[in-house]
């Protein structure tokens, strides 16, 4: 069977681009022109709407990217698109552009999305017990999914709805929107002041938005604090009593917000003691003076307690009693530089660690703090988390203290990901989009400036940019190093995916086996019956059951899908099992399994079901699969026991340069020695040739931390830090591509429509009968016989 021609390959690529175009993806003007020239799309189906922009200019605004019309927009129209939103009608839920009633500028849009979701029942009386959690370590599924969604690259726009948080924000809104009270007598005034004190103590968001004032260099010398979405989430978690490990973009006003919060707690609680650890002594003194003492001075006199024992590094609230004794609140905030014994011999109610990325003894401080977080509850008779630990910082200086922060955060993230909540620490990431005032236009301009620099410090400058304006967690902890492809190429593709995240959304889920109920499995099997198929079970991103992400689901084609697997060697370890599906028609990966669990047989089952799911012919039972032979023995035996061993690629089917001498390896690829160098070369080629068709960001995220290291007289390619970075999907990707190359002589063919009828001639195979004579039998019959 002949290979398909270059013309056929280009036509398949245009078919993929058309599919993406129909989803609203910006595929570029050149590709659009090719689609028009090929007669695949038309240009007269869209509608434009006249809109006046902020600068007074009137343009005709295309709504094609919302209504899926085939409109080729100009640069001016595309720019105008950034200034609108879509409203859905109650009648038909179809998108309608309200160009008269509501034109949403970027300024208004930022205000909207930085606030809280529009809610019904705004007059409902909300009490603290409606939003405060029952436990700080036993989390609900809704809470876990919400935290995961906040930390995602698109979390600013697409975080899930979590009702307690919404109620917390709504409570603050209710109180802030209440009309000014009228005082007829002193009792009414006193009751109002008591109520205000209670409200400030109960809901810090209300307190800071109503009374927060910040020092600034201006004619007035101050300005009003206004919370954005990130601050609302932060204050909710703090008021709930959670301990947090936060990484964030720079200049997101978290230090200011947390300083306000700790001031409020100390002002309105008895015997509340806080220790605030800053980067150094100078910053500690500045924090106390400008972020705590000054805001305290701006609170109304009638609501704020006196500040006594006002020292350079400590402020105490309370009144002096007889003989130097202290009465009243007796609450304090102490701001200190880092020290291994900064918390020793004390049990602060909250410990705050600012600029954690610049503190090289972070692990020591945290270890010293851990015993102080727990206290004995006489009602339950158990130790409970009674105190808080708040750590926050940004990326940078990874060659110095930043590595300590990375170690702490990634350890907390791993525990959270594995749903081990005993430590009580919630790791959370606030990326660049949470920064008040940040837009995609501004981000692109700043990035262009960073990437325009040249010379010996150019790469370091680009890394610093991504650390300061991170989109993913990997951005925060970027380090230098020679990557397989340059950082600009990787970032360009990540930006491409991020910019189209509303149009190209991978499906997340897992597989369930379909059984032949008349064929019981053998004794000791992990499944009760013979597997004959696989069903896809979709889940929301962040669901614990997710094993696989899918870009495109299978179509009824033969010779189209090929599987590559980088297996796990045992049921313990850090690496994950990864398996990719390569679409040889479109020339791109369409699915990626990337996970591990303690039950290694379940990992093997999901990988096997992935291959079954993409098999449309149902002859051999699964698509062809190339595995890494030197660590894939256990998985190969598992799949062979399921009757699918005939789907593995033999070593002799691979390019000769990848085969072992003397055919010492029968099945799969032995990725060692010279062959590893060749595989790395193939991996580079896959990204260079097909990179613009890869829509699963996990490949590019792992590529960012896949670096060349010197070892002895040679070099090796591996994850930058094997404790926190992976390369499993990269190898499964290249294996899936190599698997397709092993069968490049097989032309992908549709099994539906006219093409299927044209290709429906039966095929025969020459075989030897039991009697020893030669005969032809139907190939389908032959394959079924071979499986048995």
How many DSSP H or I helices? 26
What form results from the Cα inertia axes?
A: elongated
Mean pLDDT: 82
Q: What is the total tally of β strands?
A: 29
Tell me the distance between the termini: 27 Å
Structural class: alpha+beta
Radius of gyration: 31 Å
Approximate helicity band: 25-40%
Biggest sheet layout: 8 strands, mixed
Low-confidence stretches: 44-78, 80-122, 321-326
Strand content: 15-25%
Question: Strand order across the biggest sheet?
Answer: 9-10-11-8-12-15-7-16
Oligomer: single chain
Structure explained in plain terms:
It is a single chain. 36% of the residues lie in helices and 19% in strands. It has 788 residues and is α+β, with helices and mostly antiparallel strands. The strands form nine sheets. An eight-stranded mixed beta sheet has the order 9-10-11-8-12-15-7-16, with helices on both faces. It has a seven-stranded mixed beta sheet with strand order 18-17-19-23-22-21-24. Helix 8 (163-177) runs parallel beside helix 10, helix 11 packs parallel to helix 12 and helix 23 crosses helix 24 (728-742). The two termini are 27 Å apart. The model is unreliable at 44-78, 80-122 and 321-326 (pLDDT under 50).
Give the key terms.
29 strands; elongated; 788 residues; alpha+beta; 26 helices; 7-stranded mixed sheet
